[in-house]
Write a structure and sequence with these properties.
17 helices; elongated
């Protein structure tokens, strides 16, 4: 990548405050603590904004436990809370929670000051100064948000300058300039930011972007070009309306396109993205840059061929940089080179004729819009050659699953493992749960083996409301320190999940075979 020689950029992540304003998102206190620890310890962001004063008891509890943890780890000065110009109330709330930095929400446009507060600029400034004096007496550091600053610079720049002139010589650490309504474009950001920097050269400015026009990342970078040294981001771009600037994208572009320096640990971006995705229940699009599930997956066979010859289709966004690895998707456009990469990854070697048959079958499945994964390859190979996937294979010989109102579902299964049949029965909370419990009983009681842990379970069906549509079940497993997925396809959801489970058992047989 070359030695970095650019400017140092400070990152303040507001996932736990502005990100939580995403519709439908609400973190409980222990989730906020986990995310805060990931942000500060794993990602090493410079600062985090963990909530808003006076919102709720839950918000107070979250701020309290984060402050307690941060204090023990000498990180308290990097924990911030949004507060309001309300006399002593917000400062006391933040102080009592154990936090020691308030991000004071002031007005950055004349219309907000006049129509929302019903005050003159002079009255608003006096109220702000009163909060500043009280916070200083309590030992609480102050940053200031100039809310609706973008509209202020468009419609009432003299108000913005009046605010800055009055407050720049106080003990305010940072002036944070938000595009509250997401109305700016990069050229406007450059124009307004350069005016601010020219008029107030010694002030530390943060820029806070919103993504209403899908320009948040572009506007953040325009701010950096204009001399801003502090940026606000969220994990996965969470935030009100269209969201905020996503940290992963901001970090990659800052480093690669602007040669800027941050303290972010890039190799943890994907892991933290998954944690926030889980807690927020907001799914990350598979094509979202850096953290999307498919963004390091090559589909076209010509790309795999080029990578084989000299990494011809790679750029600076190498997946290993972000704790990930490149994959080669299987489908109708895969081509021989793509399929061969996947075959090699699973440790198989095929002759030319078998490769031709496997390629034809994958193209056939791709035309039907079926998803083919690396884990499916042994089954496709077995299908086209008429051979088993391995000497020690697992197959479901028969099963009976019953469900009746008022009774727990029951499953009886007969499963063949390495040529020997086993039978077990179990109850469960659902039909699939009963099936897994029965199979787990075989592994525990008859084989004395560890059964993988189910990490995630998702079900997809085609749109259109057809009741006879195929169901695709995707199950994520954890086994022997590894995370992997298997898929099953069937018209019955339970059967699809059972197929995915049998695929998983065949995969772990290879590990048991090595031990044996």
């Amino acid at each position: 990548m070359g030695k970095q020689t650019g400017v140092q950029i400070e990152i303040m992540d507001t996932t736990l405050r502005d990100g939580e304003q995403t519709s439908g998102v609400s973190f409980v206190p222990h989730e906020k603590l986990v995310i805060a620890r990931h942000l500060l310890e794993d990602l090493n962001v410079d600062r985090i904004e963990v909530g808003s004063a006076r919102v709720s008891e839950g918000e107070f509890e979250a701020a309290k436990i984060i402050a307690s943890w941060a204090s023990q780890h000498k990180l308290l000065n990097r924990v911030e809370v949004l507060g309001f110009v309300d006399g002593h109330t917000s400062v006391d709330w933040i102080y009592d929670s154990g936090c020691r930095v308030i991000n004071l929400l002031c007005k950055g446009s004349l219309k907000h000051c006049v129509y929302q507060l019903g005050k003159t600029p002079e009255q608003h400034i006096r109220d702000i100064c009163e909060v500043l004096r009280y916070a200083e007496g309590k030992g609480v550091a102050v940053n200031v948000y100039l809310e609706d600053w973008s509209s202020g610079m468009k419609d009432s720049p003299e108000f913005v300058y009046q605010m800055m002139d009055a407050l720049q010589r106080t003990n305010i650490k940072r002036f944070m300039l938000p595009d509250t309504l997401g109305i700016l474009n990069p050229l406007q950001v450059i124009e307004y930011m350069r005016k601010m920097k020219k008029r107030y050269p010694d002030v530390f400015f943060d820029f806070h972007a919103h993504n209403d026009y899908d320009l948040a990342v572009s506007n953040v970078l325009a701010a950096v070009l204009s001399g801003v040294r502090g940026l606000h981001t969220t994990i996965n771009g969470l935030g009100e309306r269209a969201g905020n600037a996503p940290l992963a994208s901001v970090q990659a572009i800052l480093k690669d396109q602007f040669n800027a320096i941050t303290n972010i640990n890039e190799d943890r971006l994907y892991d933290v993205s998954r944690v926030v995705e889980s807690y927020s229940a907001i799914q990350v699009p598979v094509n979202k840059p850096i953290v999307g599930e498919n963004v390091f997956t090559q589909v076209a066979g010509v790309h795999a061929d080029g990578d084989n010859k000299d990494n011809l289709y790679c750029n600076n966004l190498v997946p290993e940089r972000f704790g990930r690895k490149r994959e080669y998707a299987l489908g109708k456009t895969s081509g021989k080179a793509n399929i061969m990469r996947n075959i090699e990854d699973i440790g198989m070697k095929l002759d030319e004729e078998t490769m031709r048959k496997v390629t034809e079958r994958i193209v056939e499945l791709g035309d039907k819009k079926e998803v083919v994964t690396k884990e499916d390859l042994p089954y496709i190979v077995a299908d086209v050659t008429g051979l088993g996937t391995s000497e020690h294979s697992v197959s479901l010989k028969s099963y009976v699953i019953s469900s009746a109102q008022g009774l727990s579902p029951t499953a009886t299964v007969k499963i063949e493992i390495s040529g020997k049949e086993y039978e077990a029965m179990s109850n469960g909370d659902g039909q699939y749960d009963a099936f897994v419990r029965a199979v787990r009983k075989v592994y525990r009681d008859s084989l004395c083996r560890t059964f993988p842990v189910l990490v995630d379970y998702t079900v997809n069906i085609p749109k259109g409301g057809r009741t006879d549509a195929f169901v695709r079940t995707i199950i994520t497993w954890s086994f022997d320190g590894k995370i992997f997925r298997t898929r099953g396809l069937d018209a019955d959801q339970t059967v699809a999940a059972m197929k995915a489970t049998i695929k998983m058992l065949n995969m772990i047989e290879k590990d048991y075979e090595k031990v044996a």
